[in-house]
């Protein structure tokens, strides 16, 4: 059932669901999928596009979290490795193995990192065929041809998963519908409906038409990530803050910066972060930073300082001397970390998830990461069922396959730099819930993240195709193209967008 049909049905009759999930990122999609596959009548709503915020702006890794071993968070590493195995096995079109190499510049590092990675292997259990190994200087350079070899003594390799976060999100939305649930993007929450101080539904609003409608539900899940506290305040004002938002920024460089098929991992940068340079869709993805943010934004922007930091590290460890002109795109996402009074920085905050049930019955889930989205969803639905008048049903997702929403080759007919053609645009609109030019160029294809200038160049053609498919008028098409181009300019490096980047109000000293 398409979006318009679902809205007509919801608007014509008073609809009642077992689960209403608010938030269409990794957490919300996972929770709705879990609930739908258990047989519960489920509706997911998202105020913008699926995975528009944090869940399309990750470092594109499905990983156990090597650095969590240093924090002695063994349980999180084990859980993450189990979920990594699940995704490798059950989403083969969406998640693949990637070899990582840690370059070593002191002999003592070999023993230190080798010990940690052997523990990583042991926690992974039966995945020893993808275990870590020590590399000579020559072997390291063979795997990382673009690496600066000055003072290099060798390396250590290990394996983790890599994926396209937005593609997994859209595929999950399709799986929810396939399991009997319903999903709606561009629908925002206006208020909760309460009876005897308990939430029994919500007043929603179709963003495209500004038409309100009511949804009744036995369970309401708040899975809005960095915006979770604002939803909690709709339930009860002046709630304590649960989320500590952290910005992670990335830059995208040409593929030849690393060379080969292996990724580079630096265990510790000057600000204490792990930094990656990863081959991804014919480019080199470099990230990430970890900057505390006071106010959440749906379109966070990498600051000049972060971009300079990432570029400096890329130039320090790679042979190429990249300049801002070499940056194809830059993007940022906000992590919804669980607040802790004892943590000295957001980098030190745990990546575990936390599920809260309010007195009115609102279920809020925060924290976690893409790798563990399925387990987060299982825990969230289990907690919700403890207080609901529903017949308990066990989780079924651990044995289910996630099918890719799109896996056909694309003829770059619109522009040789862009993997997009009319067939891809039509499929995005008719089968993948795309409503706007931004939906297509930012998330159904990753054109904006891979090459922002090329995305701007093809936006008019994409807008014209979208307009024909959705039967939009010229003013609607022009507005969509203009809005996308404004967004795309925020993904260009500082030399192109210095004025716009300087407006960011949440800039924080990177090295504080």
Label this structure with key terms.
15 helices, alpha+beta, eight-stranded mixed beta sheet, globular, single chain, 35% helix, 512 residues, ten-stranded mixed beta sheet
Radius of gyration: 23 Å
Oligomer: single chain
Helix content: 25-40%
* Low-pLDDT sequence parts: 341-350, 496-512
How many strands, what sense, and barrel or not for the largest sheet? 10 strands, mixed
Total DSSP helices: 15
Mean pLDDT: 90
Structure classification: alpha+beta
Beta-strand content: 15-25%
Report the principal-axis shape.
globular
Q: In whole angstroms, how far apart are the ends?
A: 51 Å
Tell me the total number of β-strands.
18
Short description:
This protein has 512 residues and is α+β, with helices and mostly antiparallel strands. 35% of the residues lie in helices and 24% in strands.
